[in-house]
């Protein structure tokens, strides 16, 4: 066993021994399977070597110290601490020592960088860990736990194939050690199911979720709170797959479990009700969905279960606002969006980047109601915040900027609208390429503005041809999206006296119109 490097804490060093602990199934209700959820919780299997427990305590102390630094706002200190430990273990690796101890240390360091939010370096750490674990035998102590952490981190980095491979090895090891009916399999099963659902393997994911529910139901009982996470996860996946009725069954079961355990007024009831609201929305039952969302939000408020600015509660308000707009109740929807903005300003400050989403949502609502002046005010604020955060060339600023250009067009401020649209075009061409869909969107806006400004017809025709080429590439030569663009091109060809070309495109336009009219009639 290696003892050539040490785990560094702020004011001390410690000799290296070894180990990683397994997250217990008991943490399921709190959130599930994130890479740094109870990563070093102290749960131990019965036959660990003595040396494993010693390093486990040191690793747990290190991870706790990193989390404490982050909570106190000392991210730079946390990174320094992680870097010191990385340099130490790197020396051991360079010396040729690549055992379970080194994998364990790298695991904690990677989890620490995940907690800090530095995902770029995590990928490099995972490469080192993979090189080690690929050469370890399956009976290496705590290898299964390290593999589970790796699977979760790979998933966070959207490296789904590697995540799945790693989870599968962990499951193979654990099934051999604990048996195929052990609840210790729940954590890797949930990780695998989430990964499978993330890259189009919904059928396999559904089977695994059902397996988890069966395992927990038989060992913990049909009303166990541990069932909530897999039931919600399965319901969400079914809803995503368009199986709203099946999803409703699982969400109803969650509501039943929470109601029996905590009563009618607990905040967790609100989460279950909001899930059912999304089902009703997917079923086209807007009025029922609206009532359920309102009830869910009220329960959350009355119970103080979550902070008013919590992202879960915020999403409920936004989803309800969207439903209200669709149902023709725009004023109610705007009031909710205004509440979202006010709450975020109160808790985050008036310059926080998260405000931008709420400002754009509210500006969109104002624009729908023809209140372009208030929309303009919000969009200017959002653009200022984005530029301050990202600079003047980042592609993300082009979205509020284009929205502002459209709003100014409606306010007849065409000169400034054109200036902004041209800037959006410049930014997006650089970021996405000249033939990308975001560029086509900017060109479409620019054509409308320049048409009213009386720009040269030949220039406008050139822009429209660019839009058509982009749409054909993205949507197909006979797609419905190109109808409006073709109509505009035919108009300018006629205006410029290009009869032969106009005739060809007019025939194409007529064929497409007939095709889509027949589809509508059918």
Please write out the topology.
Layout: E1 6-9, E2 12-15, H1 50-71, H2 75-94, H3 100-116, H4 119-133, H5 143-156, H6 160-178, H7 186-198, H8 202-220, H9 228-240, H10 244-262, H11 267-282, H12 286-303, H13 311-326, H14 330-348, H15 355-368, H16 372-390, H17 398-410, H18 414-432, H19 437-452, H20 457-475, H21 483-495, H22 499-521
Antiparallel strand pairs: 1-2
Keywords: Repeat, TPR repeat
Pfam families: TPR_MalT
Domain MalT-like TPR region: 145-427
Q: Gist?
A:
The protein has 522 residues and is mostly helical. The chain has helices spanning 50-71, 75-94, 100-116, 119-133, 143-156, 160-178, 186-198, 202-220, 228-240, 244-262, 267-282, 286-303, 311-326, 330-348, 355-368, 372-390, 398-410, 414-432, 437-452, 457-475, 483-495, 499-521; strands at 6-9, 12-15.
């Amino acid at each position: 066993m290696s003892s050539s490097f040490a785990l560094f804490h702020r004011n001390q060093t410690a000799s290296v021994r070894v180990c990683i602990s397994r997250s217990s199934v008991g943490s399921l209700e709190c959130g599930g399977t994130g890479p740094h959820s109870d990563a070093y919780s102290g749960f131990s299997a019965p036959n660990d070597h003595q040396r494993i427990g010693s390093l486990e305590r040191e690793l747990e102390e290190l991870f706790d110290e990193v989390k404490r630094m982050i909570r106190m706002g000392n991210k730079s200190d946390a990174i320094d601490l992680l870097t010191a430990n990385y340099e130490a273990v790197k020396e051991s690796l360079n010396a040729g020592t690549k055992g379970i101890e080194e994998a364990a240390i790298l695991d904690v360091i990677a989890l620490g960088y995940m907690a800090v939010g530095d995902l770029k370096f995590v990928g490099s750490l995972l490469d080192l860990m993979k090189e080690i674990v690929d050469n370890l035998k399956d009976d290496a102590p705590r290898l299964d736990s390290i593999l589970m952490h790796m699977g979760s981190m790979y998933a966070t980095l959207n490296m789904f194939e590697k995540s799945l491979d790693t989870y599968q090895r962990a499951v193979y090891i654990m099934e051999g050690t604990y048996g195929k009916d052990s609840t210790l399999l729940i954590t890797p099963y949930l990780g695998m199911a989430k990964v499978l659902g993330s890259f189009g393997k919904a059928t396999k994911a559904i089977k695994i979720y059902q397996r988890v529910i069966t395992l927990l139901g038989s060992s913990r009982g049909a009303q166990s709170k541990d069932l909530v996470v897999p039931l919600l996860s399965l319901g969400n996946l079914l809803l995503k797959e368009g199986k709203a009725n099946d999803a409703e069954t699982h969400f109803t079961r969650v509501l039943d479990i929470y109601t029996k355990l905590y009563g009618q007024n607990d905040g967790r009831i609100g989460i279950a009700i909001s899930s059912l609201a999304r089902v009703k929305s997917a079923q086209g039952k807007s009025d029922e969905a609206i009532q359920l969302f309102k009830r869910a939000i009220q329960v959350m408020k009355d119970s103080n279960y979550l902070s008013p600015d919590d992202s879960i509660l915020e999403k409920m308000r936004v989803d309800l606002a969207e439903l209200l707009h669709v149902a023709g109740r725009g004023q109610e929807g705007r009031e909710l969006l205004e509440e979202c903005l006010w709450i975020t300003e109160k808790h985050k400050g008036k310059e926080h980047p998260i405000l931008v989403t709420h400002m754009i949502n509210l500006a969109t609502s104002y624009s729908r109601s023809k209140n372009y002046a208030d929309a303009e005010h919000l969009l200017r604020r959002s653009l200022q915040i984005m530029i301050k955060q990202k600079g003047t060339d980042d592609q993300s600023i082009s979205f509020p900027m284009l929205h502002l250009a459209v709003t100014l067009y409606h306010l007849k401020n065409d000169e400034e609208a054109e200036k902004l649209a041209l800037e959006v075009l410049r930014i997006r061409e650089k970021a996405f390429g000249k033939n990308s869909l975001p560029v086509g969107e900017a060109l479409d806006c620019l054509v409308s503005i320049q048409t009213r400004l009386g720009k040269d017809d030949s220039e406008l025709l050139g822009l429209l041809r660019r839009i058509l080429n982009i749409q054909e590439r993205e949507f197909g030569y006979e797609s419905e999206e190109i109808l409006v663009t073709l109509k505009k091109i035919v108009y300018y060809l006629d205006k410029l006296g290009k009869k032969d070309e106009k005739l060809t495109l007019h025939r194409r336009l007529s064929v497409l119109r007939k095709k889509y009219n027949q589809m509508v009639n059918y």
